[in-house]
Specification:
Largest sheet: none
Mean pLDDT: 85
Helix content: over 70%
Distance between the termini: 73 Å
Strand content: under 5%
Shape: flat
Order of helices and strands: HHHHHHHHHHHHHHHHHHH
Radius of gyration: 30 Å
Length: 500
């Protein structure tokens, strides 16, 4: 058997095993320990295949695979749907790049377009599943069924089973009629639920399909370079076009920045006198628009840098000066956005949307600093990795600060300062917020305390955290806090109802 066939068969086999494991672990929710265990199993399979010499796991591919395991560990740590969605995005991104950079060098020097194209190519290969491996890698004609004697023995075993089957059915029926316990045992053994069996089969095939495609992408699949994706020869921008576009943007940004300086020093009186809006309304109106501005500038500057001709150093210097000036002004605009968010929070409280948008602004700020250090100093090839690393660092920071608990504590602090506390919004947050919510209850009027206690008891009475596969630290901690406060009943027991 050829090495290609050995590798192809090994990948198909372990994919089926990981598919079965996916059905066992991931068919129950919400995600928790099961997501981490499956990702660890995938990493372990790659290490075993590498040790067996069937695939080569590069250092860069190994680090990215480790990052994917770390992203999956987020499911074990926090229960926030927003954080878990970001964990899924991080795991998908690192797995997509791990498959590509397991077969090539240059992760630290890969460009943004290189990352995007490789991620999309890996996604396409994963979607193709086992088809390329079965059709291109395995030479089925080379797989021997044994010698003539071995084939004869196999056929004899099949004939024996054919004769034994009706006899087993006959005597089994007689024994079942003779003994009720034996009959129940047989009934349980052959009690097939077609819908349940189909569900298991489809989920197993789903995970096996994606795993087979990803494993082949990581070991045998083509890279972007193999498909000959190259920058078009005519893709360049002249000095006049560059100067006009970036110069016009700088003038527009400068006008806006001058206005922001007036409001920085003029305060609420100047805002109300000029716009007719209160300071809080002014902040609410502008923050998200400024976030969009910051988010749009980055791809524009990267595109203009990509379009600069390498044979005209003078034009490159002009671009760097104009782009640098634009980024400096953008930092002032981002500072204005941060100030508006602070005012917005003071007036209306903190929510998940406002917090995650602020986190996105933190990532943009780090990315623009990295842009100044790399792209504008002629090291564009280092930009993409730093931007991705900054994103993963911000995600890790979000897990550490616990957004849902932070929201409850911030809104409780507002309540102590004389504002209202939105009880319904606090209760809409997930298990991550429960310890902070129980702590904040002590600050609220008695009627709100009773409402929160009753709502928490209703919510957690419906939760079934008995399945070890879905264990999550935040959910376990929330249940422990509620149990310590007498707000939750042990399984199978009922507590005294709390009056509304």
């Amino acid at each position: 058997m050829t090495r290609s066939s050995q590798t192809g068969l090994a990948l198909l086999t372990v994919s089926l095993l990981l598919g079965l494991l996916g059905d066992v672990l991931l068919r129950v929710g919400p995600p928790g320990l099961n997501a981490l265990l499956w990702m660890v199993a995938l990493a372990a399979v790659c290490l075993v295949l590498n040790r067996a010499g069937l695939i080569t796991l590069s250092r860069e591919g190994g680090w990215l695979l480790a990052a994917a395991v770390l992203a999956a560990a987020g499911y074990l740590w926090r229960a926030s749907p927003a954080l878990q969605a970001l964990d899924l995005l991080a795991a998908a991104l690192t797995l997509g790049l791990a498959a590509a950079y397991n077969r090539k060098q240059g992760l630290l020097l890969g460009g943004v377009a290189d990352y995007v194209l490789h991620f999309l190519l890996t996604g396409a290969q994963a979607a193709a599943g086992p088809i390329p491996g079965a059709a291109l890698d395995v030479r089925w004609g080379d797989i021997s069924l044994g010698d003539r004697r071995g084939r004869g023995q196999a056929l004899a075993a099949v004939r024996g089973l054919a004769v034994a089957l009706p006899l087993l059915l006959l005597f089994g029926a007689l024994f079942s009629a003779a003994d009720a316990v034996f009959a129940q045992m047989v009934d349980r053994a052959f009690d097939f639920n077609l819908d349940k069996l189909t569900s298991h089969l489809l989920l197993t095939l789903f995970w096996a399909w994606l795993t087979a495609g990803w494993l082949r992408a990581a070991s045998l699949g083509p890279t972007v370079e193999d498909l000959h994706f190259q920058r078009p020869a005519g893709a360049r921008l002249g000095a006049i076009e560059t100067g006009v576009v970036l110069g016009a943007l700088n003038i527009l940004f400068l006008a806006f920045v001058l206005v922001q300086f007036r409001y920085f020093f003029g305060g609420a009186a100047l805002v109300q006198a000029t716009t007719g809006l209160t300071y809080a309304e002014y902040a609410r109106r502008g923050f998200f628009e400024l976030v969009k501005v910051a988010a749009l500038v980055l791809p524009i500057l990267l595109l203009f840098d990509w379009l600069q001709p390498v044979d005209r150093p003078g034009q490159g210097r002009m671009y760097r000066w104009l782009a640098g000036l634009l980024v400096v002004q953008l930092f002032v605009i981002m500072a204005s956005a941060v100030q508006r968010m602070h005012l917005y929070q003071e007036a209306f409280g903190l929510t998940e949307l406002r917090l995650y948008t602020s986190a996105f602004m933190v990532w943009l700020g780090l990315t623009f600093l990295w842009f100044l250090v790399t792209v504008l100093r002629g090291h564009r090839e280092r930009f993409a990795f730093g931007a991705m690393a900054a994103g993963l660092a911000v995600l890790l920071g979000l897990h550490a600060v616990n957004p849902e608990a932070l929201i409850v504590r911030a809104n409780a602090a507002r309540y102590q300062a004389g504002h209202t506390f939105d009880v319904s919004y606090g209760l809409s947050l997930g298990p991550d917020s429960v310890p902070a919510l129980v702590e904040a209850m002590q600050l609220l009027p008695e009627s709100d305390q009773r409402s929160i206690a009753a709502a928490l008891r209703r919510q957690w009475a419906k939760r079934d955290d008995g399945d070890w596969r879905t264990w999550n630290w935040s959910r376990a901690r929330a249940r422990a806090v509620l149990d310590a406060q007498g707000l939750i009943d042990p399984p199978g027991q009922g507590g005294a109802p709390i009056p509304e």
